[in-house]
Predict the structure.
Amino acid sequence: MTRGDLPPAGTATLFQLLRDGRPRTRADLAAETGLSRSTVAERIDTLLGSGLLRFTDKASSTGGRPPTMFAFNPAARVVLAADIGATHAKLAVTDLAGTVLVEQDKKLDIADGPEVVLREVCKRGRELLTRADRTSDDLLGVGIGLPGPVEHQSGKPANPPIMPGWDGFDVPAFVRGELGAVTLVDNDVNIMALGEYRGHWSEYAHMIFVKVATGIGSGLISYGRLHRGSQGAAGDLGHVRVPHDTEVLCRCGNVGCLEAVASGAAIAAKLTELGVPAASSGDVVTLARNGSVPALHQIRQAGRDIGEVLATAVSLFNPSVLAVGGALSQAGEHLIAGVREAVYQRSLPLATQNLRIVQSASGDEAGVSGAAFMVIDHALAPDQVASLLSR
Amino acid sequence: MTRGDLPPAGTATLFQLLRDGRPRTRADLAAETGLSRSTVAERIDTLLGSGLLRFTDKASSTGGRPPTMFAFNPAARVVLAADIGATHAKLAVTDLAGTVLVEQDKKLDIADGPEVVLREVCKRGRELLTRADRTSDDLLGVGIGLPGPVEHQSGKPANPPIMPGWDGFDVPAFVRGELGAVTLVDNDVNIMALGEYRGHWSEYAHMIFVKVATGIGSGLISYGRLHRGSQGAAGDLGHVRVPHDTEVLCRCGNVGCLEAVASGAAIAAKLTELGVPAASSGDVVTLARNGSVPALHQIRQAGRDIGEVLATAVSLFNPSVLAVGGALSQAGEHLIAGVREAVYQRSLPLATQNLRIVQSASGDEAGVSGAAFMVIDHALAPDQVASLLSR
């Protein structure tokens, strides 16, 4: 973007101040920024014109005409958020505060490939926009989570193991072609971590979110920001070696990987071996809810194995919150109990002093919520606001 | 701080722009900030008065009097940086770009307690200031690294194992009393990580720095910022369990801690057991440099053990750079070779694709350099500049 495309200097500064939601007068804004009253007035007009600001109740005044106040307008645009899994997707339309306006669950098969899956997602997205009384012109952007590694900068899947046909596919270009909106993509665990954090724990600086389902992965928050790592691969705990002797072979080719020992798929396989047939994470959860002792025992042990790896993560990262989500976390307290046992035994006292180990509070909405925040944080950042004003 | 103590709005904005070192005219600054020419002129005068800005060469012009240009002035203030170890300290005075102006090494005993040690550090600090032709009035602040856990917010050591008398001691208050300057404190590994990063790797977003000496610890950089964690305990890898069977008892009370297996102290103990007497990390390094095969063998194995734990750290954090420093890294390539072996074997291919595993480039200056940057980053931040202008 060249200087010529940017809005007049000071506009972004004003908007960032107002994003906290607190209404302000022109005089407040001049005092806070050092911009002249006339410059503030001009920039406010631009922002009002874009819909990003709205008038609010008049300020109380000691006499005369009360001054006009302005505030951030979360209804100015909407976000389409899609949390795409291996066999189903959750879609939602949210406002600019991340509040879900309408949502829908949809079965699909990720193995149908990117064009079939994304075309269906876009079609359902348009329907949702209509249900919310909006059109694709109102889109701030589209946020998508995928069940595999994604190079976040380009939005392209990077060697995803369970997504045939998706490797290197330009997801943002395809979705932009369908809906005409900026599209951001990340792996499902990162968007779940972001959704869980922003929805429930944003008063804390550092969090680790762990998803335990068919696979195992985690997302890290450092100083309120998703730590993606240099290849976007941060949080990949599934193939860390568990710190006790095991010869279990993992699909990745190594032995003793956490995922081969403690994932939903691994527990289902073990239970089947023990004469308690289970084909999926879902079966394991059902068995646990029905009080199957072997299932509860295996889940507890999986919690301990995961906890042993998380103990290292806690010592390294020293989070305030360790949130456990994913299908298996729905099996009751047994998984978390195992995690707590191992983390408290193996982490340093200082690192666990104020640590909260909790079940994910946002449940299955974490993904779409995080996908929406990913778009909002990006598109309303100071260097991006320009494109909203030039429309 | 109340609104009344703040400098006129816009001053901090102008200063943050100029911190990149690039000279600008008043007209440049008005265009970049949206502030009026007269506001810019006033704020620039304030900043010139404080010494934080200086005049530079005139801009070239197509005719008439060329406009005046201004730039950040790194000589405006100095920082006193102290990297305090168990048995010695390194002190330096730097400018606001972190460049070391003068430095000194000094033997001391941390066990003499905080008052004796810090009084000596302040005395030597004053001497260094004199050598640099400055006084304590020129101090932007004092940065101190200590060989144990520190609660960074308060600057107080938190249950440091090898620092009798230091627990909870108000280091910043004591030093401020001696030198009259803002004082920031952190553990030695964090400041080494910061110094190594800012000095050599700041074009990368994420780094892990590991110190291997008498103990083992690490410091994490996320998006260019030191990730301290919620108790300031992030990076504490010394008491992570190594992922293979071992019954070695650690001084912390657990078994199989990395530090009990692979630190300089652990290697010295093993060598002594094998009939090759060694009392310290230094002895181990000397033996290795003299070609002692048992020493080289033990160092290589320590590298592998450290690498097994770092493999988890790499999978979790996905850094671009993994820098190995501390006394034992001076023993040649054997330590790093062991680290590389284990990390490449156990980390995910995606996470090691572009990973650089390197020996620390800043050597024994990492600590003072990082301590200086800790102070500079804090004191020149937008919310802090005020106090420099009101002097």
Summary: Residues 293-317 of chain B form the longest helix (25 residues). The mean pLDDT of chain B is 91. Chain B has three domains: 3-72, 78-181+367-389, 193-360. The radius of gyration of chain B is 23 Å.
